[in-house]
Amino acid sequence: MKMKRLLTSCFGLGFMPIASGTWGSLPAAILFVILSGLNLSIVWISAVMLGWALAASVVCVKFAPAVIESTGKKDPGEIVADEVAGQCLVFVGLAVSGATNICIAAVLGFLFFRFFDITKLWPIKKLEQLPAGWGVLCDDLLAGVFAAIVLQVVVRLVGII
Q: Among positive and negative, which fits the CA dihedral 18, 22, 25, 27?
């Protein structure tokens, strides 16, 4: 059980006393900045982000039910693997160049994801009704998709980045 809690909490980030979901979202944004700073192609960056989203999703679906059962909560705050997965989706396919642009993209993507994850606008909230690990995960994946769309609009239409 300790290993399941360690993995679903993103190695303890989910146990932060305040805003555990925000802490759980940070690793994906940091990874995006690091990968972008290495001047890897957008294909490689997207592949890594998708791979990490998939790994976090598997952890969430496979191990969250045990954590849910042990805590007695439907969506324990300590589970942040779902935030990792959702935040990773925000950066898939985002083509940016230059260190300043990468940081701005990471901050905006992070903020957009947190907005959708926290507010759970329709239909995001509806996905919480799915059973066990799926309900914990799918709302964050959709929040990530919404945040990715908004970030792409900002990048391509508004031209901030």
A: negative
pLDDT tens for 93-152 read 786 644 458 888 899 999 999 999 999 999 998 998 888 889 889 999 999 999 999 998
**Residue 158 pLDDT:** 72
Place of tokens 């901050």: 107
pTM for the whole structure: 0.91
Exposed e or buried b for every residue in 71-106, given b needs 16+ CB within 10 A? eeeebbbbbbbbbbbbbbbbbbebebeeeeebbbbb
Nearest CA to 127 out of 152, 117, 103 is that of: 117
Tokens of 118: 């926290």
Cα distance between residue 155 and residue 120, in whole Å:
23
Q: How far apart are CA 154 and CA 119, in angstroms?
A: 20
Structure token pair of residue 113: 């994801």
**Domain extents for the chain?**
2-156
